[in-house]
Amino acid sequence: MLLIFILPFIGLVLAFILNKFFPKALFHGYDVLPFFLLFACHLISIEQRKPGFLPYGFFVFFILVIIVSVTEAVKNKNISLGRTLRQLWDYLTMCSLFWYIGLLFMMI
């Protein structure tokens, strides 16, 4: 139960550390948050006795979206692949954050 609250905090601390050590990197510190938030969502779904595959199903769906967007970027050569992947990863970060917050409210 305590890991549900500690994992996102560890992810935020790691994001802060990454931003401090690599201020001019192509990635942002918050790019590591989905890994911590998805596991915390998994722990919440176990605590609520809901199917445990839901967070990982979401992650697999996201990977499939990346594959489709990469194939479209290859077909249409005017679409920037790096920019597309960056936007999709930001989308995963926001979705996992909102999913985590929503599951916390459902747990109350």
Give the radius of gyration. Answer: 16 Å
Number of helices, counting only DSSP H or I runs of 4 residues or more? 4
Structural class comes to mainly alpha
The main pleated sheet reads as: none
Helix content: over 70%
- Ranges where pLDDT stays below 50 over 5 or more residues in a row are none
Overall strand count: 0
Secondary-structure element string? HHHH
Verbal overview:
It contains 4 helices and no strands. By secondary structure, it is an all-alpha fold. The mean pLDDT is 82.
Q: Summary?
A:
The chain is mainly α.
Task: List its traits.
108 residues, mainly alpha, 4 helices
Protein topology:
Blueprint: H1 2-21, H2 33-47, H3 54-75, H4 81-107
Helix pairs in contact: 1-2, 2-3, 2-4, 3-4
